[in-house]
Amino acid sequence: DGQGRPRYEVTRLYEATHATENFYQKRACPNLLDPKTTSTFLAVTHDEYARLLRPIARYVEAFFTDEPSLIATYIPKDRDYPLTLPWHPRLPAEFRARKGYALRPHLERLFVNTGPLDRRVRCDFWDLIGELCAEDFFGGLQRWCRRHRVASSGHLLGEETMVWQTMFNGEPFGCYRRFDIPGIDMITSDPEKIMAKDYFMVAKIAGSAARLQGSRRVMCEISDFFGIMDQHHASIEQMQCTAGLLFAGGITDLCSYYTLSFKPEAELKPGEFPPREYRRYTEHVTRLNARFTAATITNRVAVLYPIHSLQAHYTPSHRSMYEPHPDADVRFLDGAFTDLCRSLLQHQVDYDVVDEASLARARVVGKSLVVGTRRYAALVVPPADTVRRSTLRTVGRL
Questions:
Q1: What is the DSSP string of 83-101?
Q2: Starting from the edge strand earliest in sequence, which strands make up the sheet with 62-66, in order?
C-alpha cells in the first residue's frame, strides 16, 4: 500500500493456469481447500453413479480422480506473473488451531525473505495445506468409496518434483495415503529420457508411499504422449523397457493409452501398432506383472523425502512452473534429491522414499529402522537443512 506495507489480494485463478493450459478441456477448477468442493463433487458424480448402479460395488471396482490440484502456479513461459499461493478463508483459523499462532501477521514471510522465522512459518503453512488437501478432498473421496465398498484411486498433478508437489498438493505422501490404489501417469515411453530426467521419480514416490501404508497395488496410465508430440514415436522395445522400469518402481497395474490399430499395415500411422506387434508388448507386460506382483519388493535402504527443507526456502515465483525456480537453495534441494535417487539406482541400490510423517511413527529395533511392515538397514539423508524434531529423534536412536 502507500505506506510500504504489503497488500494481499484473494482472487480466483484461471487464465494461464493448468485449468486453461492442459491438453483437455479449459474450464475452472474448484478449490481443494474448500470442504464444499468435496461434498459437491461427490453429490454430482459418485452419488449419481451409486443411484444408477445398485449395488455399485457389483459394477465398479474403483473411482479414479485425475490430477486434482490447487493450480497455484502458471504455465506459459516467458511471462511475469503475480506471486501466488493457495488460499481459503478458513486457513487463518485452521492455522492457529493446528500450529498455535496466528498466520496473518506472518503472511509476508510466505512471499519474500524477511528474517529467521521465515522457514518455520513456511513449513507450518505448507504442512497445513498438505493436511487439508489430504483430509478433506482425497480423504473425503476415500471415505465415500469405503462406505460403498469400492476403492479410491487416482493420481496427482506434477508428480515429478518437490517444487511442483508443494504448489499443487502441499506434499504428496499424505494424499497417497488417502488412495486405496495410488496412481501415476507416465506420458513418455523413452526409457533413456525417463532415467535421465526426473520421470523415474514418479513411480518411486508412489510405489514407496503404497508400500509404507502396507498396500501393493499402484496403477499407471501409460502412453507415449510426449513422443507423439515430438514426432519421436516409441518403439515396442522402448515401451517394453519403460514397463520394466515402472514395475521395478512398484507399479502393478498398467492402463494403456497406446494405439492398437486394425488397419492394413500399409495404412498405419507412426505410433499405431498392428495386433501382431502389439501382442509382443502385452505378452511382455503380462510376464512382468506375473513376476513382480507375485512377490514382495523388499528394500533395505530408506531415503528421506526432504520436502520440508525445500518448503523452508520456497517462495512463489513470478515465472512459469516450467522455468527454474528463482531461489538457488530450492533448485539445489530439488535437484540434489533427484540426482541422489538416480545415482542409487544406477549403482543397483534399490530403496523406498520415506516421508517424515512415516518416520515419526517408526521404531528402531536393534540396528533396523522399522516403518510399519518395512524394515531398513540404512537411512540415507539427502542434502537438507530443515527436518522435523521427530525425525531427529528417530535418527538419533539409530
A1: ------TTHHHHHHHHHSS
A2: 62-66, 151-155, 181-186, 219-222, 253-256
Q: 65 CB contacts (<8 Å, ≥6 apart)? A: 138, 141, 152, 153, 154
First to last CA, the chain: 52
Closest by CA to 110, choosing from 166, 162, 164, 58, is: 166
What is Dmax (Cα atoms) for the chain? 73
CB atoms near residue 146 (< 10 Å): 12
Nearest to 209 by CA among 233, 234, 179, 186: 179
Spatial distance between the Cα atoms of 117 and 318, rounded to a whole number of angstroms: 23
Cβ pair 63, 57 in contact under 8 A? no
C-alpha–C-alpha distance, residues 384 and 393, integer Å: 16
Query: Which of 129, 148, 61 minimizes the C-alpha distance to 91?
Result: 129
Task: Tell me the pLDDT of the chain (398 aa) as tens digits.
Answer: 667 788 899 999 999 999 999 988 899 999 999 999 999 999 999 999 999 999 999 999 999 999 999 999 999 999 999 999 999 999 999 999 999 999 999 999 999 999 999 999 999 999 999 999 999 999 999 999 999 999 999 999 999 999 999 999 999 999 999 999 999 999 999 999 999 999 999 999 999 999 999 999 999 999 999 999 999 999 999 999 999 999 999 999 999 999 999 999 889 998 999 999 999 999 999 999 999 888 888 999 999 999 999 999 999 999 999 999 999 999 999 999 999 999 999 999 999 999 999 999 999 999 899 999 999 999 999 999 999 999 999 988 88
Q: Which residues contact 238 (CB under 8 A, 6 or more apart)?
A: 189, 190, 191
Distance CA 207, CA 352 (A): 8
Q: How many helices (H) and strands (E) does the chain have?
A: 17, 13
Cis peptide before 270 (omega within 30 of 0): no
Of 298, 301, 306, whose CA–CA distance to 373 is shortest?
298
* pTM (two decimals): 0.95
Strands 181-186 and 374-376, bridge-based pairing: unpaired
Residues contacting 195, CB < 8 A, separation 6+: 245, 342, 345
